[in-house]
User: Which sequence fits this backbone?
């Protein structure tokens, strides 16, 4: 059970009892699309904060986000959006649409949590049950903030009589479940002129950088059980097959292309030491910035697995869990984000928030980003990052923009209890509102400016350079709807 500070609990209770004043119509004075966006953001923020806190409390795992998806869909439906649930054959995926015709701008949202990451909204490690799930990547803010942005765009279209369509894409299971990969295959993102995304971070910056394509799989070895002392010659150790594979993979590292990554863990290795293990499993990731290089590397990884089985008289079965493509950046969208970030300004803490941040910062490494940088707007990030995300798959379907806003205390590492702590209180909410503002301002610019859309499209085609999107996920792969059913899965 995660808990909030008493003050936060009071605010949360009051929010639940408040009327939905965020749905009241805009005044006639809000005719300009930018001022209409800012006005709508201000009026809808209490509802967005309420949504973010509910999602934080529920902390639902990938493909199991029933309440989170329903809550966001309810918020958007109440704001006048048309809702289509269960898109792409995924029960917790949905599209919310407002408007008609072209142009079409999409906004991405995520709302899955991570297993065993529970934490109170407190600046020290604190949780009743550390085995429970928690929003250690801030997706409660991601989902609620994107809904806030979509509502602001809709309100601006109403106020100005603007043309076009705004779409909110509710995307489950980013954390290893490949939700957007399967939605991409189902054509859910087709027809968009641009798609806008963001992510909670510890700083404010637009992104025009690639990242690493990846593929993850479970290597399952089956052998023959026997008494490890009485008759070991009768056994065939599945664990031996796994360990020989791991050794081969470690030998492969020297000969991998620059920038490649391989990492693995043993998820099953036998029980009692006096029994030759008949069952073992290796869970592995491989990554590279170039999907073609990764495809070739993956063949060598599979050969290592086959060698381990061959050398130990065991059998091996490989199940690919997920695969993400490498991100296709878009500089015009990054510059658009950057302009609105600089015009909006960074995050300013209250004295209470500063005290919270100071205490939490003492739990971070000495080299962590300094407090105070949350107020700054960093330069556009152009260096390829070492992570992977299924947003990259979307970036090959339509021009896609990405940015980070300072929802976290500066220096906070991803997938940590410190993320959960800040994401459950006002520091996270302030970063979320900044993201929503920049997303919505960028969206109305794209909807109204044909020259901007043309520039975005030209950069998209130039970077594709004739290449086509070919996911490394097997063609017959279905969404792994039960990959978190037991609370497990990949991080």
Assistant:
């Amino acid at each position: 059970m995660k808990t909030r500070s008493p003050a936060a609990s009071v605010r949360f209770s009051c929010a639940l009892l408040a009327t939905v004043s965020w749905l009241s119509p805009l005044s006639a004075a809000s005719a300009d699309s930018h001022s209409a966006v800012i006005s709508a953001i201000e009026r809808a923020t209490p509802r967005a904060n309420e949504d973010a806190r509910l999602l934080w409390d529920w902390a639902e795992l990938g493909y199991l986000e029933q309440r989170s998806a329903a809550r966001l869909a309810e918020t958007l439906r109440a704001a006048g959006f048309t809702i289509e649930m269960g898109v792409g054959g995924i029960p917790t995926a949905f599209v919310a649409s407002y408007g008609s015709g072209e142009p079409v701008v999409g906004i991405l949202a995520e709302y899955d949590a991570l297993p065993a990451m529970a934490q109170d909204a407190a600046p020290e490690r604190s949780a009743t049950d550390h085995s429970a799930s928690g929003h250690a990547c801030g997706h409660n803010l991601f989902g609620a903030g994107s809904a806030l942005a979509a509502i602001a765009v809709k309100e601006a279209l109403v106020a100005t009589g603007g043309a076009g369509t705004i779409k909110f894409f509710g995307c489950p299971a980013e954390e290893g479940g490949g939700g957007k990969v399967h939605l991409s295959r189902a054509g859910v993102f087709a027809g968009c002129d641009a798609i806008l995304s963001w992510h909670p971070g510890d700083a404010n910056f637009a992104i025009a950088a690639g990242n690493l394509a990846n593929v993850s799989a479970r290597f399952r070895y089956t052998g023959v059980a026997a008494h490890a002392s009485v008759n070991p010659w009768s056994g065939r150790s599945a664990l031996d097959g796994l360990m020989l594979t791991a050794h081969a993979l470690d030998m492969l590292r020297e000969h991998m292309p620059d920038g490649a990554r391989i990492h693995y863990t043993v998820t099953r290795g036998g029980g009692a030491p006096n029994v030759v293990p008949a069952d073992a499993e290796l869970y592995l990731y491989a990554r590279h910035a170039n999907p073609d290089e990764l495809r070739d590397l993956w063949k060598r990884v599979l050969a290592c697995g086959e060698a381990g089985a061959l050398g130990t008289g065991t059998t091996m079965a490989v199940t690919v869990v997920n695969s993400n493509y490498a991100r296709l950046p878009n500089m015009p969208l990054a510059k658009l984000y950057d302009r609105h970030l600089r015009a909006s300004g960074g995050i300013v803490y209250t004295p209470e928030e500063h005290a919270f941040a100071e205490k939490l910062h003492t739990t971070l490494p000495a080299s962590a980003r300094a407090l105070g940088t949350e107020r700054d707007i960093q330069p556009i990030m152009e260096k390829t990052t070492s992570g992977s995300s299924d947003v990259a798959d979307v970036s090959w379907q339509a021009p896609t923009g990405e940015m980070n806003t300072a929802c976290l205390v500066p220096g906070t590492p991803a997938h940590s209890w410190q993320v959960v702590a800040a994401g459950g209180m006002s520091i996270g909410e302030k970063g979320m509102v900044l993201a929503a503002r920049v997303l919505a301002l960028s969206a109305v610019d794209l909807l109204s400016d044909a020259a901007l859309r043309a520039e975005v499209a030209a950069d998209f085609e130039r970077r594709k350079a004739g290449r086509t999107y070919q996911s490394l996920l097997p063609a017959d792969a279905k969404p792994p709807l039960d990959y978190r059913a037991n609370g497990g899965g990949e991080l």
Remarks:
- Confidence is low (pLDDT under 50) at residues 5-22, 24-31.
